[in-house]
C-alpha cells in the first residue's frame, strides 16, 4: 500500500514549521494591505511578528485546522489531475494487448489493477478481486505488472509476461499461485509457480531474451507515471484512481459509481 499523508499528529509535525511560516506571512500580508511595509519601523515589524507567533502558540489548533484544509485540497487536486490523466491514457490502459483480461471480457465496467508480486497488500487484496469477479458478472478486470519493490519483483514480473505470451489461459492460475506463495518472489519462485499450474518452465526460459518482456513492463511504468501512482496495489475504475488496498466494499462502490457515470469516450 502506498505511503499516505499519515495521521494528523504525523502531518502536524511534518507540516507545522511550513504552515507556521505561511501563517506569519499571510497575516503580515493582510496588515500590509492597509499599511505598506516601508511604513513600519524595525521595532514594529518585530512586535508584529511576535504577536502573530504568540497567537499561534496559544492556539495551535489553528495549525491543525490549516493542515486538514491543506490535505483535503491536495487530495482533491490530485484526484482531478489523475482523472484527467486517465482520459489521456484510457485506450492503452484498458485495451492494450499486453494486459491480461479476467472476469467478463465484454463487461460494462473495467477495473485495472497495478500490482507487485512482492507487495503484501496486493496479496491480501487478491481475495477482494476474486470476490468482485465472482459477484459481478459484468466486471472486466485488466492486470498490469508494476514491479516497484526491487529486482526480485522485476524478475517475477518478467516471468509473468512470459506466461502471458506462452500460456495466457493459465495466467490467472499462475498469478494466484505466485501471490499466495510464501517468501520473496523472484525468478525462481515465479518459475516454480508456473510449473505448479502446468506450464513447462522451458517454454518460459525460451522467452527470457524477448524484447516483449521489457516492452510490457515499460508500458505499465509509463502509464503508472502518467497517473502519478506511487504504490501498489493501485486501481483505475472508470475515471477514478484508487490508491492502496482499500478493501472489497470501497472497490465495489467505485465500480457502482463507474457504472452509474461511465467514462466519456474521447
TrEMBL record:
Transmembrane segments: none
PROSITE patterns: THIOREDOXIN_2
GO-annotated molecular function: oxidoreductase activity
Presence of keyword Plastid: no
InterPro entries in the cross-refs: DSBA-like_thioredoxin_dom, ScsC_N, Thioredoxin-like_sf, Thioredoxin_domain
Domain of life: Bacteria
Thioredoxin domain mapped to chain residues: 31-260
UniProt keyword terms in alphabetical order: Disulfide bond, Oxidoreductase, Redox-active center, Signal
Protein name (database record): DsbA family protein
Organism: Xanthobacter autotrophicus
Amino acid at each position: 500500500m502506498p505511503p499516505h499523508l499519515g495521521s494528523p499528529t504525523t502531518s502536524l509535525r511534518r507540516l507545522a514549521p511550513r504552515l507556521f511560516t505561511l501563517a506569519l506571512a499571510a497575516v503580515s500580508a493582510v496588515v500590509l494591505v492597509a499599511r505598506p511595509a516601508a511604513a513600519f519601523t524595525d521595532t514594529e515589524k518585530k512586535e508584529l511578528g511576535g504577536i502573530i507567533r504568540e497567537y499561534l502558540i496559544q492556539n495551535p489548533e489553528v495549525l491543525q485546522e490549516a493542515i486538514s484544509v491543506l490535505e483535503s485540497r491536495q487530495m482533491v487536486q490530485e484526484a482531478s489531475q489523475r482523472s484527467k490523466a486517465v482520459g489521456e491514457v484510457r485506450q492503452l490502459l484498458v485495451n492494450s494487448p499486453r494486459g491480461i483480461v479476467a472476469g467478463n471480457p465484454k463487461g460494462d465496467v473495467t477495473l485495472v489493477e497495478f500490482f507487485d508480486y512482492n507487495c503484501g497488500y496486493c496479496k491480501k487484496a487478491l481475495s477482494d478481486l476474486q470476490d468482485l469477479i465472482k459477484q459481478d458478472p459484468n466486471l472486466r478486470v485488466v492486470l498490469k505488472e508494476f514491479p516497484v519493490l526491487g529486482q526480485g519483483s522485476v524478475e517475477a514480473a518478467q516471468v509473468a509476461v512470459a506466461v502471458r505470451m506462452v500460456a495466457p489461459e493459465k495466467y490467472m492460475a499462475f498469478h494466484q499461485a505466485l501471490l499466495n506463495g510464501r517468501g520473496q518472489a523472484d525468478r525462481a519462485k515465479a518459475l516454480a509457480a508456473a510449473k505448479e499450474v502446468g506450464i513447462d518452465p522451458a517454454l518460459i526460459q525460451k522467452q527470457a531474451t524477448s524484447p516483449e518482456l521489457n516492452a510490457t513492463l515499460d508500458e505499465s511504468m509509463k502509464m503508472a507515471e502518467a497517473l502519478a501512482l506511487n504504490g501498489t496495489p493501485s486501481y483505475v475504475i472508470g475515471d477514478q484512481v484508487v490508491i492502496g488496498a482499500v478493501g472489497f466494499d470501497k472497490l465495489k462502490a467505485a465500480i457502482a459509481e463507474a457504472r452509474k457515470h461511465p467514462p466519456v469516450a474521447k
